[in-house]
């Protein structure tokens, strides 16, 4: 597996006021000295959310931590499964495929050493163009248009091309980081960016500061077609998300969860889950998408077995996860 797109982004130096080991009831003897969470490309929500979360965990747990730029959810599952990374961020579609042995990175091999920690947010699939393009609907996209689908192997790159084909769009496929694709759209090197990331997407927010853009929504018929064929659900992007929106925009979405290697120490995952779910205000300060990173949304995981440490926190706080749902 090629990792040449991966760059380690280390967390800030720990403060002298870091909580001591005595602050935690569990046994820290088997905790690692450091940890890394797999995110995705810069300019996307995974990187902003994951790097902020890693810093927050490091500052409160007394171990150094950081985020790693990766190809996104599909690659994160493989890296966590093999133990190259202890933690990662993923979406339900790629997770279901990986657990079934259908990951494009390891076809026929079940990536099942991956356990759920906590819910993150829904990833909307949305289309962005320059306002000057004249494109107002997906059906308006001219044949042969150059569409940027995000990093190769990402959730967007896995599902959005198939959705476009199902909707009758003829395109040239382009890949790259969200930040790079945003720049290419602005420079006229591509015609469309098909984003799949938590909102607000940093690259879109940056684009609309520098250019006049249009966020193209799905029609009712298009919604019916893609939700019937793909593991997505209807989603509304609120008009307040971007200055380019005058009204709510209809999209589709897929849920995201943070995952850990199933052999990561139980007490460490327990503490990370506790810090995340008991301090939502802090998580929202990291990224607005974390408004849905709340315990009640644990039910959105219908695919990934739960890590015993996470399950312990949920069960202690009134949310039932049976032992049969853990690994």
TrEMBL record:
- Signal sequence extent: 1-25
Give the keywords, sorted.
Answer: Signal
**Alphabetized Pfam families for the sequence:** NMT1_3
Q: What is this protein called?
A: TRAP transporter solute receptor, TAXI family
Name the lineage.
Answer: Bacteria, Pseudomonadati, Pseudomonadota, Gammaproteobacteria, Pseudomonadales
Among its keywords, does the record have Signal?
yes
Whether Signal counts among this entry's keywords is yes
Which organism is the protein's source? Marinobacter zhejiangensis
């Amino acid at each position: 597996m090629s990792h040449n797109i991966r760059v380690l982004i280390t967390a800030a130096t720990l403060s002298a006021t870091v909580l001591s080991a005595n602050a935690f009831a569990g046994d820290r003897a088997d905790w690692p000295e450091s940890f890394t969470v797999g995110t995705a490309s810069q300019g996307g929500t995974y990187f902003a959310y994951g790097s902020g979360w890693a810093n927050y965990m490091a500052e409160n747990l007394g171990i150094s931590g950081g985020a790693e730029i990766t190809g996104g959810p599909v690659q994160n599952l493989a890296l966590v499964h093999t133990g190259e990374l202890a933690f990662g961020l993923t979406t339900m579609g790629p997770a279901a495929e990986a657990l079934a042995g259908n990951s494009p990175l390891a076809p026929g091999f079940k990536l099942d050493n991956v356990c759920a920690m906590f819910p993150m947010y829904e990833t909307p699939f949305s289309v962005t163009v320059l306002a000057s393009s004249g494109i107002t609907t997906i059906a308006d996209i001219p044949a042969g248009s150059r569409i940027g689908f995000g990093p190769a192997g990402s959730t967007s790159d896995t599902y959005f091309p198939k959705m476009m084909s199902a909707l009758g769009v003829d395109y040239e496929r382009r890949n790259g980081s969200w930040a790079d694709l945003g720049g290419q759209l602005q420079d006229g090197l591509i015609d469309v960016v098909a984003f799949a990331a938590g909102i607000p997407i940093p690259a879109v927010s940056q684009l609309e500061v520098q250019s006049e853009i249009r966020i193209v929504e799905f029609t009712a018929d298009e919604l019916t077609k893609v939700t019937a064929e793909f593991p997505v659900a209807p989603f509304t992007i609120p008009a307040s998300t971007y200055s380019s929106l005058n009204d709510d925009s209809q999209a589709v979405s897929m849920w995201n969860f943070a995952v850990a290697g199933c052999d990561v120490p139980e007490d460490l995952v327990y503490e990370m889950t506790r810090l995340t779910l008991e301090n939502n205000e802090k998580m929202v300060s990291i990224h607005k998408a974390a408004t849905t990173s709340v315990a009640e949304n644990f039910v959105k995981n219908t695919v990934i077995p739960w890590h015993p440490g996470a399950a312990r926190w949920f069960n202690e706080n009134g949310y039932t996860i049976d032992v049969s749902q853990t690994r």
